[in-house]
Amino acid sequence: MGLLQELVAIQREIYLAFAARIGNFAETGDWQLLAAYLPMGIVFGAVHALTPGHSKAVLATYLTGSTATLPRALVVSLALSFTHVTMSVLIALFSLPLVSVALGSVGRAPLLEDLSRGVLGLIGLWMLWQAFRGTAHSHGREGSLVGFMAGLIPCPLTLFVMTFAISRGVPQAGVAFAAVMMIGVVLVLSVVALAAVLFRQQLLRLLAARPRMVDAATRTIQVTAGLILVTVAWNAIAG
């Protein structure tokens, strides 16, 4: 709990400092002043991605139960990060027509959340079917779809920064911050993705001398991952 509070405090300090820079940029239009602070957006994104949320559990669960390679895992994490941040930028830029349809409260998008969880639930059912059928092949487009759907839930802090920048008449400053912030999010989610794949590969390597156990372990991992995704989707719909 102490670590989480520290992360939240760091986020708050960076956000307030950047809000001040946006205010200065709105008054002066000096890109150099803004650019000097933009690298802090990477730290902001990384710290923010370490806090609960951002579909880290979904990402790790899917990659552990799939046959995705390390490069493919990076693609999935990139798709998730890009969609997660970009969705907030789009919501802010097109807020008037979109907020009334998708947003139920500040920083949340119930419509997008339901769509995300629903498709992830279908992917979970697909993984269960693969496990019982005895196939473990994972298509690249399936992994990209997982990343895209998991990322549909917008990033609240990106949305706040964008809204603040727009309110000051400098949406380009918000977009610039979102772009560098996404780098930090990508770094953290890539580590999660690589850890999940390496864990699976190491487990299967330990069982390599026992083919039957490898098959049993692969099916068990797939069933577990599929059940988790289906459960997440069901709880979202039931809630």
Question: How would you explain this protein's 3D organization?
Answer:
The model is unreliable at 96-107 (pLDDT under 50). The protein has helices spanning 2-28, 31-35, 40-50, 56-65, 70-93, 95-102, 110-133, 140-151, 156-167, 171-206, 211-238. Helix 4 packs antiparallel against helix 8, helix 4 (56-65) runs parallel beside helix 10 (171-206) and helix 5 (70-93) packs parallel to helix 8. 38% of the residues are buried. It contains 11 helices and no strands. By secondary structure, it is mainly alpha-helical. Helices cover 82% and strands 0% of the residues.
Alpha carbon gyration radius: 20 Å
Query: What string gives the helices and strands in order?
Result: HHHHHHHHHHH
Q: Quote the average pLDDT.
A: 76
Helix content: over 70%
Count of separate DSSP helical elements: 11
Strand content: under 5%
How do the helices and strands line up, and which of them pair or pack?
Layout: H1 2-28, H2 31-35, H3 40-50, H4 56-65, H5 70-93, H6 95-102, H7 110-133, H8 140-151, H9 156-167, H10 171-206, H11 211-238
Helix pairs in contact: 1-3, 3-10, 4-8, 4-10, 4-11, 5-6, 5-8, 5-9, 5-10, 7-8, 7-11, 9-10
